[in-house]
Amino acid sequence: MEKPQSKSDKSYKLMVVGAGGVGKTALLLLFTRMRDRYYPDDYDPNFELTFAREVDVGDESCRLDLLDTTGGIGAPGTDSDLQSRYWAGQVPTADGFLLVYAINARQTFEELPAVHAHIVELLKMKKNDGDHDGDATQTPPPAVVVGSKCDLEDRRVVHPDEAKELARSFGASYIETSAKAGINVDEAFIELVHQIQLRQAACHRHRKSNKTKKVLELRFPPFNGSLAYDPT
């Protein structure tokens, strides 16, 4: 399907990752307002789906290109190995990541540290190849940890405090959502864009500061500790 022409100046690529069955596709369908008109009878949960939506975040209008890693992205050695050639090529091109688990399935939560670590490693590999912005890989990538299916409170097995602590360890935000109840779906994606904007602003300040420092060093070489005095 041909993508509609974007009216936005900015575009971001977001990847939605996490174990199979946590509701990644449902979140994307609801966010892109496609849930009522797109869920084919022959839907294959192991097939890649892409979505797009234009949103306003702060003062910025932007297009979001959304990649649904259906079937799940697991840690190295699992059936849905992130080391696969395809995913290894997709991760470094993404601007941010939604790390999704289900609050009623502890294993999906416990998989996230390995998934996040592998994403970071792939970004470092890309940086070492010289094809990625160095500033962007000095810190963990923009991410939001998403506790999905929060409407199943009576079946919760992951406490919010655990998830918040994990998000902090990733340098990420945390939010709970429910595609079924329509809770915080837009907010999760908007928060990720906000995190990307903050990271880009910080990188811009860092580059500007380094540029200014280099200019000053050229104009005023470092003092070598010696003052020559000629009495004549």
From TrEMBL:
TM helices/strands, residue ranges: 12-31
Keywords attached to this entry: GTP-binding, Membrane, Nucleotide-binding, Transmembrane, Transmembrane helix
InterPro entries named among the record's database cross-references: P-loop_NTPase, Small_GTP-bd, Small_GTPase, Small_GTPase_Ras-type
Gene Ontology terms, MF aspect: GTP binding; GTPase activity
One Pfam entry name: Ras
The keyword Chaperone belongs to this UniProt entry's keyword annotation: no
SMART domains the UniProt entry points to: RAB, RAS, RHO
GO cellular component terms given for this protein: membrane
One GO process term, biological-process aspect: signal transduction
PANTHER family: RAS, DI-RAS, AND RHEB FAMILY MEMBERS OF SMALL GTPASE SUPERFAMILY (PTHR24070)
Identification of the protein by name: Ras subfamily protein
Organism per entry: Acanthamoeba castellanii (strain ATCC 30010 / Neff)
